[in-house]
Specification:
This protein is an all-alpha fold. It is built from 25 helices and no strands. Mean pLDDT is 87; it is low at 1-30 and 46-51.
């Protein structure tokens, strides 16, 4: 019966693979958090000869009263001056100016009303379309903004700001391919503008033009090698290309430059577990333990990777993580305390400190009765101590929990084998295989038990 003695060991190895799957998600699901650039757009006046219509004497006098405030940027004073007059009596030129002043004062609702009124009078006034597009950009009405930006281009405005704004709007509206050419036009007119480079990079990445994005990014890094956002984007591109080595080096560089956002720390640690150095993952988790353990998603990543290390008997790495966790004494839920106690118990079991392990596991179960790992670990300890009845009780409790049901049933099967209750073991293995048909590795054990039961009868 030696071939059956490894049954539980095999099931625990299956557990290790399952734990690894948690700490080793598919690369497509790993994301890199990249900060949105601080987009800065400039409203530029665009005067055309055909827009220099005659103004009345009264309008001329009014312009004289606001000229100094306009030149010094005192738009609040200018807006008050306009509001003191009957705006409908002014021509399109002054009303357009009023709309621009309102835009600068962030009075978007009134600016929209005034500029729309101007366009009713002069539908093909490019500067009014441009100002109105800015109103819509600032209020998030991007479809309307694109309409007026496009009209501005059609009416002859061809500067970098307009192309950059049109590109930004297209990118935000989920049209990255159309944003590419607009950003390229903006860069052609302003080749030193980093904002247009950043926008073009975003557009390349969003449109999955990864080769172009990589080439552009290399050029940008030559000029700004200490920009952590660029290294994060390099890591993002590498992940999309399936190049985990390059992704890791890029994300590690961003980390060394000061990027310690939790989502990116989680990503770096997960990639290290799956394709890099589990020891480095443990170092990151220990160094930033407070960030991980005081956030729900971070705690889950911490516990998943810790469980993987335990399953693979990397005890020194797990020990560093637990030591770091012990320095955080507040803010844990009962369930989280139980999870940490299970990990501590696994360390104690490795050191042969069974009493300590039993105490920790008992506390974990008291705090979180549905903690399957605690129930299984305690059952294993009791079985090793030949306390069979308690071991069975723990396994039966664990069987009620879906995430550990399979392993609990295999644990009971192993006890049955140890006690030469082969018919009971066979029945349990058949149940496991029926519920989990992917466990084809159990078929040989089932056949061996069937033969043994026949011979016994």
């Amino acid at each position: 019966m030696r071939f059956l003695k490894n049954l539980v060991t095999a099931s625990l190895l299956g557990c290790a693979a399952s734990t690894l799957a948690l700490a080793k998600p598919a690369h497509g699901k790993i994301t890199v958090e990249i900060a949105e650039p601080d987009w800065q757009f400039v409203l530029r006046n665009h005067q055309r000869d055909d827009h220099r219509e005659r103004i009345s004497r009264e309008e001329g006098e009014f312009i004289g009263t606001i000229q100094q405030d306009l030149q010094t940027g005192n738009y609040r004073s200018v807006a008050k001056a306009f509001a003191a007059h009957d705006i409908s009596q002014f021509g399109p030129r002054l009303r357009e100016l009023y709309g621009q002043v309102l835009l600068n004062e962030k009075n978007y609702a009134l600016a929209e009303q005034v500029l729309l009124d101007v366009l009713k009078t002069v539908p093909d006034l490019p500067s009014a379309h441009r100002s109105l597009s800015m109103v819509y950009m600032m209020t998030g009405k991007l479809v309307n903004a694109r309409q007026h930006l496009t009209k501005s281009v059609e009416l002859g405005i061809q500067d970098a700001q307009l192309f950059g704004q049109l590109a930004y709007v297209n990118l935000q509206l989920g049209k990255p391919v159309t944003a590419i050419s607009a950003y390229q036009n903006a860069l052609m007119l302003e080749p030193e503008n980093k904002q247009w480079y950043q926008g073009l990079l975003f557009a390349f990445i969003e449109s999955n033009a990864l080769a172009q994005a990589e080439s552009l990014l290399d050029e940008m890094l030559l000029d700004d090698a200490s920009n952590k956002q660029l290294w994060l984007q390099r890591g993002q591109i590498a992940l999309k290309q399936g190049d985990t080595v390059k992704a890791l080096s890029s994300l590690e560089t961003a980390l060394s430059l000061g990027d310690n956002s939790l989502s990116n720390l989680i990503t770096v640690a997960k990639i290290h577990v799956s394709d890099g150095s589990p020891r480095r993952a443990a170092d990151i988790l220990a160094q930033y333990a407070k960030s991980f353990l005081t956030d729900g998603e971070g705690f889950n990543a911490f516990s998943d990777i810790a469980s993987y290390l335990a399953a693979n008997e990397q005890w020194s790495d797990l020990g560093r993580m637990i030591n770091a966790a012990d320095k955080i004494t507040t803010g844990f839920s009962a369930s989280q305390v139980a999870t940490l106690n299970v990990l501590k118990a696994q360390l104690a079991m490795n050191k042969g400190q069974d009493k300590t392990a039993i105490s920790l596991l008992t506390k974990a179960i008291d705090a979180a009765p549905a903690n399957g790992e605690a129930l299984l670990s305690l059952a294993t300890l009791y079985r090793q101590q030949n306390n069979i009845e308690r071991a069975k009780m723990m396994y039966l409790r664990a069987e009620s929990l879906q995430d550990v049901k399979q392993r609990a049933m295999l644990g009971r099967a192993q006890i049955a084998i140890d006690q030469r209750q082969y018919q009971d073991a066979l029945s349990l293995l058949r149940q496991v295989y029926k519920v989990y048909p992917s466990r084809t590795d159990l078929l040989s054990n089932i056949q061996s038990l069937e033969n043994l039961v026949k011979n016994t009868i």
